[in-house]
Amino acid sequence: MPPATLVDFLCSWLQYWLGLRRCIPDFFGPQLVPDHILFPLFLYMKQFIPVLLLVTTAPLAAHAQVSVTVSATKGPGRLTGRVLDAATQKPVEYATVALLPATGTAPLLGGTADADGHFELQNLPTGSFRLQISFVGYGSLVKPVTITAEPQDLGSLTLTASAQNLAGVTVTGERPVVETKPDRLVYNADQDASNAGGTAADILRKTPLVNLDGDGNVQLRGTSNVRILINNKPSALLAGNLAEALKQIPADQIKAIEVVTAPSAKYDGEGSGGVINIVLKKSSLQGTSGSVGASGGNRNQGLNGSLNTKRGKVGVNTKLSGFRNLYPFKSLTERTSFLPGGGTGQLTERTTSRNQGQGGYGQVELTYDPSPLHSFTVSGNGNLYRNSTPQELFNQYQGQPQLDTLYTRDILRQDESRNFDLNAGYTRTFGEQQPRREWSILAQHTNNRSRGQYRLDQFPTAELFGGPVEYREASRNLARNLETTFQTDYTHPFGEKNTLELGAKHIGRRVTSDYTLDTLLVSRQTDFARSALRSNRFDYTQNVLAAYSTYNFSAGKKYTFSLGARLERTDIAGEFQNEAGRFQNDYLNVLPNLSATRTLKKDGQTLRLSYSRRIQRPQIYFLNPYVNQVTPSSVSFGNPRLRPETADLLELGYGTFGEKSSFNASAFVRRTGNSIERFSSYNQALARNETTYGNLATVYNYGVNLYGSWKPLKDWDLSSNLSGDYTRLYSSVLQGTNSRASLYMNVNSSVKLSKTYSAQGYGGFWTGGVQLQTRYSGGVYYGLSAKKLLLAEKADLTLGVNNFLAPGREFRSTTTTPDFVNYGSFYSYQRSFRLSFNYRFGKLDAGQRQRRSIRNDDSKGGGSGGQQGG
What are the distances in angstroms from CA 149 to CA 69, 77, 82, 120, 121? Predict the structure, then answer.
């Protein structure tokens, strides 16, 4: 499809979905979405059309320039073949294939292999030529070929991975910062110099399609219903406060971020936003290698190291890190409550805080490959994190004389989490005769132990420490989350392109939350007394039994299909110790999944349509009934009786890429039923705002995403991502509707100034979002960095500055309910600088093999907030 035709198609498609159907009135059939729903998105995005054209047409124009040209002389010849990794015999996805003349370097015709490594060149002239096959990270293969009138199958053609000698030999090939694949986007974080010394949160903020709000909560294409994995596995590290957990993973240990927007049936019931997989660095190559690094700055400091070795059949990968971070903030809350009789109550709260944390992370992985057909893996990782948040709070409430307040509080919050994961796996392959046949058995046990507590002293004046203490409070919460998983997967090939995938899994979870609250009213008590209403123990068990099947097949040379389904049975039981609150909840879900992909004539172009249904169960963050009450005017707690939510996603995607550019466009419609939403209500008797969760809404999301990358010069890379979406939430329970159009954009640029110097810059913005009762603002982020290679390129020194034009950034929100209107302001100090040093040592040889890993991505994850435990 020529670029101009593509732009016309996308324009017509967008106009149709926005209600302007003059271009293609009959192409999509009857009207699917009311005009009044999407038309505001068109009006909102209209002002950004010049930016949109700049971002999208540059990669397309570049692609048109670098696409290989077809010889004016066509013939009857046809070449087919398959590109494999020489060591693993796995397909090399999307390798570049070019037909060269017998002498000279100008290609006559070019193409790209598919996801299974297959390629086909047609209409070739007869005679003697050379076939060149290349891919980033591999040495090129040049093979003489003689083309006749008869079709030729060249069979399997192998590429050898480029050797990496970290002691001084230059690595032959670098991956682009962002790669586009039919089912995912891959952000290669280790190729971005500005990440040095940062954290996983810093990297996610720059990942295409991903956004972090002011509190550090992760969002993907307009929804926070995202499951985050580490090396394709769940981790106890991420089981509690996700926003804090992401600050604990050093950026220097992250290789890539994979964003999967339409997961297949192999993934656990994930369906709303998608899956984000954090890929940590490790090596399965022969030899010994390692690294040590240190970083210092005003926001975070850390030390990290890794050591990897493989000798023959045995390999060991280790990593260890320690860190400290500081994230101060201040906030303001102004709430107007509507009282019976027409009166109002006015609340003002001001908070200043100095949030600081420290901890460490370690991992050990042992691999044993007794033969090329058998592989065993055993690994363990754990972390310890302590967080201290001293706060100073001013509170004033007016409007109800018997409940009016004026006081200040000195508050200290302290949290500690200890987590570990144990993994074991066996993988059986079946040699060159059946390179895609594979069977694996996997097991995992995770343990999360979180202890949260706070204490406060209250003073009856408008000034902190003004006069004697009138009230004291102390609260503790000990939460445990145990999870054990067994899984088996089998892949069987039929012919060269068709495969059948089967699998089964059992997940057993047990969660406990033991929480207490002690109070001391100085004028009436001499010591703390236990509050029975706010102290309890909650026990929760969940068992999930799942099975899936997926059949992948081809229809002709241009079409591939995937048909799959997942069956999941869930059994839940929970009870409170201090009340007759036992409950049970069982349900069975059938989750279909299908996709169709068409390979277009020009090299590297695909069109993909997919549909999937996914289930998301509430995580402990949403279930934990522990009442967090730092201030009497605002409390939050979980809802242990939550049911899962289900989501249906329809997505259309187009992708094209060449040697120097790539472009990816996608549009999606998502409907989430029984959606788990945060909601607030006002307790008139206690004059406080109470926040919890419920299955309250049906959510519709409509969106368009455009991503392009371009290499205008040999040492200069540019990439940009632009996303627009419209969200509409409706709750029959609360009799309310909320909607908003949002825009997100980021730009990344890197340039190699010389052999040892390079520079990087990035920036972006988002316009905010919407929840069932809340609308919140967006923001801007940016950063610059410079890197210098040292010690014969074995080390590097990186200086980076982020958000340096202002000390911090203000995030605003408005929550509207029938009982009150709440205006919130959160000011986060984000100006930062850091200096990082990394040293690499060792020598590696080619010979890595792929390994299976567990992916538990069925739970709806939590964000930052008041809930304790994990």
Answer: 22, 5, 21, 15, 13
